[in-house]
User: Which sequence fits this backbone?
């Protein structure tokens, strides 16, 4: 599962690689592992996330699911460290609200001081609703700047290179779980969840630790 989410290869290619190492595994089994354990890794890795900057960059990108384009909301801090992501069938105020609320829960100890978005009209409404509910500080600065969001735009492209071998997802449920695995493994690979660094051995130790497998 870690290899699939990390390297952006097909289930069949990964099964073939495993067979060359003497491990017989069906591609559908790898699929089931991804669906089961990718969301679990996201849940368990939370305490290792550490500090995120209060300067957020928020944007959406397109993902094909069931032959139709859906929206992947994503937020990173000014250093490119992932805060949260969420797959949605809509790009309206309700979706923006749910996503920002999820992001706030993910970094509850580090509330944002500024949120930079594109000019989508849903964001100001969602931000105002969160402020009225007391979930977001009233002094948060909302900015619309394509230049400031360049770091997230570039990261969209890197993520899509991992998504491309999937050739689209069949359902929202399977897409959401798989994308969660891609996001988490990319952050682990870049050392954003692991203070030991971003070497492969550090990734393995962290994953083992999350599941109680460390020696």
Assistant:
């Amino acid at each position: 599962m870690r290899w699939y989410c990390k390297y952006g290869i097909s289930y069949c290619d990964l099964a073939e690689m495993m067979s060359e190492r003497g491990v017989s595994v069906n591609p559908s089994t790898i699929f089931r592992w991804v669906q089961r354990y990718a969301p679990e890794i996201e849940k368990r890795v939370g305490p290792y996330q550490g500090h995120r900057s209060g300067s957020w960059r928020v944007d959406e990108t397109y993902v094909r699911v069931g032959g139709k384009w859906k929206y992947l909301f994503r937020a990173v801090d000014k250093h490119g460290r992932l805060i949260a992501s969420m797959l949605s069938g809509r790009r309206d105020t309700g979706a923006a609200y749910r996503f920002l609320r999820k992001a706030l829960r993910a970094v509850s100890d580090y509330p944002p001081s500024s949120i930079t978005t594109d000019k989508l009209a849903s964001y100001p409404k969602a931000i105002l609703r969160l402020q009225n509910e007391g979930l977001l500080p009233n002094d948060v600065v909302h900015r619309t700047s394509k230049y400031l969001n360049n770091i997230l735009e570039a990261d969209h492209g890197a993520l899509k290179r991992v998504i491309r071998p999937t050739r689209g997802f069949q359902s929202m449920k399977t897409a959401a779980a798989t994308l969660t695995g891609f996001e988490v493994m990319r952050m682990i690979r870049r050392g954003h969840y692991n203070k030991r660094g971003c070497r492969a051995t550090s990734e393995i130790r962290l994953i083992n630790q999350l599941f109680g497998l460390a020696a």
